[in-house]
Amino acid sequence: MDIKKILTEIIVSSVNDSSVTEELVQSLIAVPPDEKLGDFSLPCFKLIKGRNPKEVAESLKTAIEESEFKQFFSEIRVVGAYLNFYLNRMIISKTVIQEILIQRENYGRSEEGAGKKVIVEYSSPNIAKPFHIGHLCSTAIGNSLSRIYDFLGYDVVRINHIGDWGTQFGKLISAYKRWGDRETIEKDPINELLKIYVKFHSEAKEDPALEDEARQNFKLLEEGDPEVTALWKFFVEVSLKEFNRMYDLLDIHFDSFAGESFYSDKMPEIVDILGKKGLLEESDGAKVVRFEDKNMPPCIILKSDGSTIYATRDIAAALYRKRHYDFYKNIYVVGTPQALHFKQVFTVLKMMGFDWADDCEHVGFGYVRFPDRVLSTRNGDVVLLEDVLNESIAKTKEIITESGTASQIDNIDEAANTIGIGAVLFEFQKNGRERDIVFELSKMLDFEGESGPYVQYTYARGRSVLRKAFEMGISYKNVKLELLTDDQEYQIVKILMKLQSVVRDAASKNEPYIVTRYIIELCKAFNKFYNSTNVLKSDEDIRAARLCFIEAVTVCIKEALNLIGVGVVEKM
Ligand code: ARG
Q1: What are the structural domain ranges in the chain?
Q2: pLDDT given for residue 379 in this prediction
Q3: Is the Cβ atom of 163 under 6 angstroms away from ligand 1?
């Protein structure tokens, strides 16, 4: 149940004015700084212009009091131009906890996105190059956005736009023909392919003819030459095998792996449309689109040798996606350094006459910084995702093995996996995505800080009380949930109640950290309650109610963590 949503609906239908939309009302309903002013308050003077706000407040008060939802309010007060709402704690607690325990992992889900397709493109690593930490960032955020939109009922299409096309493949083919060895590569594909790619660059410095040969090879690839195509396929296959191992480890999946090569035969149409619209201009032998906005450099469509580039493929991909999926939204989760690229692509689409370009959105994220390491692929000095994950898993295992609870954990490796990976994913989604991330293992694994392990531990604590209660044979017949009215419990009920609106907010801003913050808020409040309340020693009636309450809290923690791709463990 989302009382804010219920209130919004009553207000919108009662005011009956086209300028008063649900979004407006949702944004106006606020939580007053002091509880004495109510659980929610609405500044009626901001609602409709030109009407006496006090009168508006009075008429809304009457509308709510005459609605079927009046039982949820203990009082509604008109104070000046404000309408203050006081909830009926007993009924709210009872309704919310009951709803969670009945709906379980479906609690808070909505159908508001039904029939609307949202494409979330994420991860998108490059063939024959390491899956680096920036790709993990995209993978983590994209996975969460997919889950968030799915939770709201949208029809989500998860696309991995693999970087499997471009002049670098010409270089790789040249390198392979010189120094490649199939067997060595099969054993450790990405590292070995990277090695010969790096060697190509250093050799080409001495011998510039290599670059021409590489260009020629890419041309052959674009023309479908069987020999180079077979080599290219081999690089793709061995790389994907490694990426898939990573996705399995992270439990992250895709509906489509249509990468850049998928659009190689769809580019002539783009060049054709641009040509017919008179948008292509010559520039040093290349064909480019220039923009009215003089601050935006032209977008190269065809290089001087006639081959297409990254941007052309993105333009073709967007058009294909519109035709094939008829998306409502087309989201690209890619680092902010590519912001200009996407701006160019979307602008070109608009100039081509595709108004749906406005439904395409680049969802960027900041740099990942390692206090003492740098990221780059040219010289082979990269921070690899797998190293980071393995380090985190190993460190977690160390921590739990040394802790007093190790003997209770059924499968330490499994727990270390869930906690270690969860810690990394959590860290990436703790702050607004455009902020840089400083990656420090010790902070990420701090069980007392705002970390993945901290919230997983909170969940496990709740589960452990429930297990103890079960062992004590506590009965749950005729539970009086309306007893859950003390301040701490009620604060938590209010947090549980807002799950859906938090998820909606996260979707509207494409910001998974809004869900992460929610989880931290819930866990902090729950730990405070847990530390000050001896649940198992409470009187029988309140004990049963509190156990149901704890169960509801654990359901919500698990559910919200699932939205950001993080798992839970029953014991830790
Ligand atoms: N493969 C690219 C990279 O690693 C990211 C692709 C982003 N997606 C896109 N549609 N351009 O930088």
Answers
A1: 3-87, 123-369
A2: 41
A3: yes
Fold match between domain 3-87 and domain 123-369: no
What fold characterizes domain 123-369? Rossmann fold (3.40.50)
- Interatomic CA distance for residues 82 and 249, integer angstroms: 52
- Specify whether the CB–CB gap between 130 and 384 falls below 8 A: yes
Structure tokens at 153: 């009922």
Domain 3-87 has CATH 3.30.1360.70: yes
Other Cβ atoms less than 10 A from the Cβ of 485: the count is 16
Question: How confident is residue 403, by pLDDT bands cut at 50, 70 and 90?
Answer: confident
Q: What confidence tens digit (pLDDT) does each residue in 5-62 have?
A: 899 999 999 998 899 999 999 999 999 999 899 999 999 999 988 889 999 999 999 9
What is the per-residue pLDDT for 387?
80
- Whether 324 is a known active-site residue: answer no
| CB of 259 shorter than 6 A to ligand 1 | no
**CA gyration radius, the chain:** 28
Which residue is associated with the tokens 């005729």? 478
For the chain, how far is it from start to end, CA to CA, in angstroms? 31
Say whether 512 sits in a helix, a strand or coil.
coil
Pocket test for ligand 1, best of 124, 165, 261, 320 (most atoms within 8 A of CB): 124
Mapping DSSP to helix (H, G, I), strand (E, B) and coil, where does residue 334 land? coil
Query: Is 0.85 surpassed by the pTM of this model?
Result: yes
More confident residue, 175 or 435: 175
Ligand 1 pocket member 318 (CB < 6 A): no
Cα(409) to centroid(ligand 1), Å: 41
Secondary element (H or E) of residue 280: strand 280-283
